[in-house]
Amino acid sequence: MAKKIKHSMRFKMTLVFALITTFTVLAICILNVALLEKYYLYDKQQALISAYENINKLIEQYEEGTIDMDECEVRLEQICAPTNISMVILGSDWGALYASVDDTEKLKKRLMLDTIGAVDENARIITKTDDYKLQRTYDKSMDAEYLEIFGYLEDNNSVLMRLPIQSIKENVKISNRFIITIGVLALIFNIASTYIFAKKISKPISDLSNIAVEMSKMNFTKKYTGDDNGEIGLLGNTMNMLSTKLEKNISDLKSANLQLQKDIENKEKIDQMRRNFLDNVSHELKTPIALIQGYAEGVKENVFDDAESMEYYCDVIIDEANKMNSMVKKLLTLNQIESSSEPITIEHFNLTTLIKSIVAANELRIENNEIQIELDLIDGTYCWADEFMIEEVITNYLSNAINHCKYEKRIQIRMTNENDIIRVSIFNTGDSIPQEDIEHIWEKFYKVDKARTREYGGNGIGLSIVKAIMDAHNKCYGVENADNGVEFWFELDSTKE
What φ, ψ does residue 271 adopt, rounded to 5°? Predict the structure, then answer.
């Protein structure tokens, strides 16, 4: 029984993509909290330093007379406005050369205090060089934090640039809320899209899994029918080829196993037949050998007084020898048929003529037994069979009928033709065959009436030969009891002349 799948591939793929999306959103939020403030401050510091360097170059150009005051102010405004920098520039006489804010006095005062070395207890110096000092400070009056640069310009001018630092933590919270919102929407979209598209990916794999399960159950009818040109399609086509080869190999293996079983059964059957054959032959030969031995010893010892007795002894010996010879010949014939050492020769012959010739050959026996024979034949009936073997069948049936004919002493040989199947039946009046013996009469050496069989020289082999011949032809045969006798029959394929 196949193990039940706890979680499908479709579920696993959806779960993996959901976890990746969730992890990505959480990672962004964590990085936002940990690094955004530092990055923000670093960016503002670089903006102030860059503005300071540009202003220093601009004042140098102004002092050299390259540009006038109006152009200088315009370019100073262009430097400060984009980054929201507040700035004041003081000359060597502490006069304001330029201010970018209305509250110039406040910045001027702060610049002057820094110039004379006043200490700002709320300030934390970030960078300090010979030309400028970059620091972070808190303005109580504005309740805000700033980045400031105090620096010296050309011609003993000084400058103060201030850049407000907005609340980074608040910005981080806003940013995280936005990221989480977008992340949730992305998560929902990923789950939905992955669940839908995963079906397209997982379905052929599921089909391949089902095919593999069926293959494990020795069912090779299911095949992969997908049109994928990638690895899944290659795997499916490979499984199809594997399924075909397995089916063929298993079929060949079963055929070989079946043949092996048949060979074993045939060997056992042959061994059993050989044992039965030896037992039956030994039993059948025991009586005639004993008679021959007894009468031969009588001849040797001269136990008789006249020539007539001696002739009787010799007749018994000859008769028993003939019976043994007949039995051996029949056994050889039966063995050849059963072992298929003598091939069947199918030929076209006149069955009616064959029956008449067999009856004519047994006419003397029929007259000696005072039997009346009736022929109800269909003239010109031809059939396909081995003529020599069918002659043996008819001869055995007729001999059996002659030997067991009693009471009215009548034998009837009849032919019927139905649907191109010719049936030949030979009926004789006499005793019926006991029902318990009917199924055994085709066995070698089986005798219903052993005393009578011995009386006419039978050995129980004739009907075994009939069975072997008809089985070799693959045709039907049988026996039926009638009210006043027994009827044996066989069938052949009839044909036109």
Answer: -60, -40
